[in-house]
Amino acid sequence: MTATTTATTATTATTRVPRRAQASHPSGPKPAPAADPETTREQALAVARRVTDPEMPMLTLEDLGVLRGVAVSEDGAVTVTITPTYSGCPAMATMRDDLVRSLGEAGLAATVRVALSPAWSSDWITDRGRRALADHGLSAPGPAPARSGPVALSLLPTRRSLHCPRCGSGDVELTSEFGATSCKALYRCTSCLEPFEHVKEI
Ligand SMILES: [Zn+2]
Q: Which residues cross the membrane (predicted)?
């Protein structure tokens, strides 16, 4: 009974492949059954990994550390988990919509879940993401501050040791603690005079 059910399912999912061809090549590549959760998960993960950040499109959500995981239930429902860089990040809605649309275009109905714990850290930006930032003239964050114990609050600008992404000089000055987005600060290189953005450490 089980074998009959399996054969029926396989035939339904592979209507373009004659049954005789399948039977005579049992060790050949087999099309993935539509209902296999692990195959669906791998497919969904491959799609989700290609979705880029709307504000820094040189980074994928995976490079940014925002994409936390993809899960598929037994009934094939896809759930993508993301963690916002900042709790008030206005790009979150766009990230969610981009994920749902991209997965939908791949034939996968997905739900996006936002996980706030553990909180995102700039340490989660991948090495590939850091290289992409530098390639586009942005300064990548240094190590994030320690999270344990009391949090010191300062009214002074955060001190950072940076290098100009254009010429490599360490002679830089802060021009604004906030850039086009709250996750970036504005700097200027006093050697080559190039202004640049720095992705903050959090
Ligand atoms: Zn410079």
A: none
